[in-house]
């Protein structure tokens, strides 16, 4: 499996990052998680054809995760997509996506792909969807609006987890158990809202993952934050926009600490 970090920034971030969005790819299939910015552009940068998107998962309703939904559907249509596109998310995220798209007059857009909406129940271990390449499950996390973290398993045996936006919470530990890679937000310590890099490292340690990638990074984070996180979980790195991360069924070589200063 390959995790494409299409964006790694918070709702406000520096000029090198756009909002956090991910694509998971396996056996020429891929799906998108969140679309707060121009997801079609970032998919193309990753050499993934937006018209071949298997599904869209919206982790929650906030603008930096949903506001690009209408643009993504428009671009997919203009690029030739005609097949329906499944869209999964908590009920509130689905409602926001429908409302945003419904604001546009699309009745004359001949061939516009149907959006097939599927509500994710707010319960632990819910099956989101399953294909011949992926099995995706979810659990609620700790954020001011209904939000789900994800566990992604492939038929090849690769396992990854994504925290979504959340304060430190045991649900992410459970999602990440046995995973090779945990992608975790690191906005900063804010109880009930967001987690710090240090707290993400504690979660990675407790889950027993091989690697931790930090995303949802706001301005002001420094290498000191990374040093602190690595003192708890050594195999921690900042995620970067455009980064492609290979996830094997068992990580043969954990990520070595980087000697250079890491750009933010």
Which sequence of strands runs across the widest sheet?
6-5-4-3-2-1-14
CATH topology: Metallo-beta-lactamase, Chain A
Tell me the distance between the termini.
26 Å
Query: So, CATH architecture?
Result: 4-Layer Sandwich
Radius of gyration: 17 Å
| Poorly predicted tracts of residues | 251-264
Mean pLDDT: 94
Strand and helix order: EEEHEHHEHEEEEEHEHEHEE
CATH superfamily: Ribonuclease Z/Hydroxyacylglutathione hydrolase-like
The total beta strand count reads 14
Bin the strand percentage: 25-35%
* Shape, principal axes of CA atoms: globular
Tally the structural domains. Answer: 1
The CATH class name reads Alpha Beta
Percent of residues in helices: 10-25%
How are the SSEs ordered, and which strands pair?
Layout lengths: L1 E6 L13 E6 L2 E5 L5 H7 L10 E2 L5 H4 L2 H10 L6 E5 L1 H12 L12 E5 L6 E5 L3 E7 L7 E7 L4 E4 L7 H7 L4 E5 L11 H11 L3 E5 L7 H10 L3 E3 L4 E4 L18
Parallel strand pairs: 3-4, 4-5, 5-6, 10-11, 11-12, 12-13
Antiparallel strand pairs: 1-2, 1-14, 2-3, 7-8, 8-9, 9-10
Helix pairs in contact: 5-6, 6-7
If you had to describe this structure to a student in words, what would you say it looks like?
- The chain has seven helices and 14 strands.
- The chain has 264 residues and is of the alpha/beta class.
- It has a single domain, classed as Metallo-beta-lactamase, Chain A (4-Layer Sandwich).
- A seven-stranded mixed sheet has the order 6-5-4-3-2-1-14.
- Helix 6 packs parallel to helix 7.
- The longest helix has 12 residues.
- The radius of gyration is 17 Å and the shape is globular.
- One of its GO terms (molecular function) is 3'-tRNA processing endoribonuclease activity.
- InterPro entries: Metallo-B-lactamas, RibonucZ/Hydroxyglut_hydro.
- This is Metallo-beta-lactamase domain-containing protein.
């Amino acid at each position: 499996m390959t995790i494409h970090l299409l964006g790694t920034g918070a709702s406000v971030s520096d000029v090198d990052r756009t909002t956090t969005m991910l694509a998971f790819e396996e056996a020429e299939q891929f799906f998108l998680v969140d679309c707060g910015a121009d997801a079609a552009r970032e998919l193309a940068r990753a050499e993934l054809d937006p018209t071949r998107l298997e599904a869209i998962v919206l982790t929650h309703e906030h603008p930096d995760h949903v506001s690009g939904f209408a643009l993504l559907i428009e671009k997919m249509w203009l690029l030739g997509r005609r097949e329906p596109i499944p869209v999964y998310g908590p009920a509130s995220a689905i409602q926001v996506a429908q409302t945003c798209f419904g604001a546009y007059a699309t009745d004359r857009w001949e061939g516009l792909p149907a959006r097939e909406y599927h509500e994710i129940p707010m319960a632990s271990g819910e099956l989101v969807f399953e294909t011949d390449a992926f099995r995706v499950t979810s659990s609620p996390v700790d954020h001011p609006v209904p939000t789900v973290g994800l566990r992604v398993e492939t038929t090849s045996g690769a396992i990854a987890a994504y925290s979504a936006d959340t304060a430190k919470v045991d649900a992410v530990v459970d999602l990440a158990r046995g995973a090779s890679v945990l992608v975790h937000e690191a906005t900063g310590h804010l109880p009930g809202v967001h987690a710090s890099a240090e707290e993400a490292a504690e979660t990675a340690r407790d889950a027993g993952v091989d690697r931790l990638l930090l995303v949802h990074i706001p301005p002001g984070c420094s290498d000191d934050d990374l040093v602190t996180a690595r003192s708890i979980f050594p195999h921690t790195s900042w995620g970067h926009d455009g980064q492609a991360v290979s996830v094997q069924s068992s990580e043969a070589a954990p990520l070595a600490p980087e000697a250079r200063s890491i750009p933010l």
